[in-house]
Design goal:
heterodimer, A: 496 residues, two-stranded antiparallel sheet, 18 helices, B: 507 residues, mainly alpha, two-stranded antiparallel ribbon, 19 helices, 76% helix
Chain lengths: 496, 507
Amino acid sequence: MTGDLLILLALAVPLFSALVTYAVGRMPDVRETMTIVACIALSIITISMLVRVNAGVPPAMTLARPIAGLDIAFRLEPLGALFAVMASVLWGVNSLFSIGYMRGKREANQTRFYMCFALAMVGVMGVAMAANLFTLFIFYEVLTFSTYPLVTHKGDAAARRAGRIYLGTLVGASVLLFLPGIITVAVLAGSTTFTAGGLLAGKVDGAVASAILLLLTFGAAKAAVMPLHMWLPNAMVAPAPVSALLHAVAVVKAGVFTVLKVSTYILGPELISTLPAATWILWIAAATIVIASLVALTKDDLKARLAWSTVGQLAYITSAAMLPWASGLIAGGLHMVFHAVAKITLFMCAGAIYVATGASRVSEMGGLGRRMPVVFACFMIASISVIGLPPMAGMWSKFLLVTAAFGSNEWITAAAMIVSSLLTVVYLMPVAFRALFPAQGDPMPRDFVRPGGTPGVTLAAIMITAAACLGLFAFADPIANFLEPIRIVSFVEIAP
Amino acid sequence: MTMFDALYVAPPALAAQAPILAIAGPLIGACAAALSPGGRSGWMISVIAAAFTLWMSLAVACDVARQGVVLYAIGGVPPPLGIALRIDALGSVMALLVSSMGLIGAVYSGHALASEVRAEKHTLFQSGYLLCVAGFVGLVFTGDAFNAFVFLEVSSIGTYALVAAGGQRDRRALPAAFNYLIMGTIGATFYVIGIGFLYGATGTLNLADMAARLASLGDNTAVQAGFAFVVAGLGIKAAIFPLHGWLPGAYAGAPSLVSMFLAATATKTAIYLIARFMFDVFPDTSAFGQVFIHFVIAPLSAAAVIVCSVQAIFETEVRRMLGFSSVAQVGLIMLGLSLANAVGVSAAIFYILAHAMMKAALFMALGALAISVKARTLSEFAGVARDAPWTATAFGVGAASLAGLPLTLGFLAKWKLVEAALQAGAIWMVVVIAAGSALTLVYVWRMVEALFFRAPMPGAPRAREAPVGVLAPLWILAGLSLWFGVNAALPEGLANAAAAALFGAGR
């Protein structure tokens, strides 16, 4: 199979899956089987792209050229390949979870739900494979609009309000900041192609580069850097599978992925390290990390707590992109994956608890672990990974992030990361702890509202990702090595 | 226009007469339609005449591509004395736009009129429609300032009557048409006064002659007054802020066919004439012209983009919303012109083409929906997408293009405009365009949310899918917005050639 075909397939498989879902919408079993088949096919495709990137023959193709200098083109590189694999594999796991959740809750409009999910994956694949900012932007917007019906799935006034905030923030930032940034890049450099070492390196002075960096970082509002973060907690009105895949993995990671791509390939590490704007963004990200963790502490609603936690963890990756010490980029790439795996587990657990017992508040979950031991054990594992303790994968990325921050003498960032890790212990650990080891006086946990408790497929999905949190602990090094090419060779590291 | 270089669509003998035939065809058609026995035959005549016009415009465009400029002396009397048609790339691009929209509108009129205009008026309506087409084509072809006025009036008489024809559907069309008549007449009068000044100063009405003499005349008060009158008069026709008062009412009241055709062509041809005067006739060395462009046109256009977009947001009636949106888009086009360089004008013309396609699709889709639901306000259109998905989706495509979503022509149009502004270093203009786009998103989203995501009002009439005769031209427009969004070689080539005609070295 040639590389071009792989790229086309990676876009066509989810697109085709969306059409099939629509066509067989009346037959739930067929519909969901087709979704799973598409997930498996897409995972195989993205993994074989990753293998090609690793072998040094990255797939690349140009799809169309609307006007000169503005190509719709794709080219895989390590970061994108990793993102594509992560998203497609987790789409599969999440689809298993969705089937249990949506059937368990007897949700309406399930066909639209699976269709939009598949369309969102088209957007994710396009973002991951984009060869230039323009292409990335197109699919970034596909992702925005295809997820709107998912956020407003309930269709009530609260959902519509959240949907307006969602679209307003994401599209507003795109139009007002991101797009002007892209056009500025296009005018200054003559193209928007992602180039190793930085497209703009040596072409612009500090002030212009700072402006571009600010426009592009805040324009990618999916990265949820404060003050453009409110859409994420609001989007929690969506059903749990949406929160799990989109607001822990696909959508938010598309945002930080964009930021990583911009700093690696548009401005380049060497230019970034000289920019004052990078320092400002580091400060804002540090503030985001700490404030989001503090807000998470105050939330009793489990999903809201997880959402705020996500806001903080995303800012880790944004910080990584700004760290002049180039291994920050690799740490950011690792954190993108490891946090995704852990956070999707947490959200799926929250969904499983909600389906089985109707409990959505942390205060209602005391002693619930006796009824749902597996779910809460998985919750515990994922919590440890988010905190960054061994033997979970999350430890490596956090370790590298803090090292990178120290290495670049960014004490504020390093301190924020460490403080936030401690706060994470405070807001995540008690959830599983109180459930598994209730205090003496706690009342007996409530009964299952759904006969049989957690649906089997849901449980399977949770166990897969929890196992991944553990298993990836051993694979941090290969992934880091795979990402090695994004660090440019000529760059002289600042000694720690 | 290299794509037309090797294209021969008409035998040479016919192609040589194509400029005058493109104007005479619809004029004769207008007479024939008025005399035709019934609506059906009137429609046939209209389609045939419009198709003929498109054919002839294409023939002219091919000749222009090969020769650069086509000169045609009417009646064989050479220019300084006789009236000449002088067609360059800009003129032929505009003629292509007018005649293709004319044909699409004519095809659509078969169904559109039945529900919106009384049957006995159909033949007269078609006559007025063809008069408009003839006037617009003549306007962009002519090389004579006074002759341009004549064509302006020919088209205007048609448009006043066409807007008033909406009185059957919506009585408010009558005052709107009257309003349009008064404003339009003032505009035309200003234009004639301006031409009078310029004639007094130069002693010629031929635009090329006038340009040559003005260049040696230097700045003088009569010329400046003439220029100001011409631009202000045409500004009313082009709906340049704040001379746009007539437009939202006229677009809201007119039959949907008329709104569609006028939105796509009427303001655009007036903008064409402004561009012709600003860059071709008036010497670019003139300090007055520069000041006028930078300190009058540009700020007013920026105000149009912001103010009218906000007005559109707070409007409840869909057609008025689109009307305000048109004024804002005219502002964007004028912003491009006010850069006064080839890149800016190319972006403006590209925007003209893009806007014509998307606005035409939007008005046509509204008209198609209005066949079954007699709706005016947003809430009355709620949920029609469930019953008429194809029509509503075409509306959605037009709306996406208007909002400037990627993969649509509207996105590329905005991109080129911002690029041109950045290249000229006009950062403020980038801010205005970005803010305008964000505001556009808000009102476009209101429409899309109403059509697609809201439940229909209880007891409201169910929408029905439009007949094929409407869906076909509608989807041609929507499809073009999508196709050119992926491959814009044709509109870009046309826009660049047109801009080169104004700014090229060979002028």
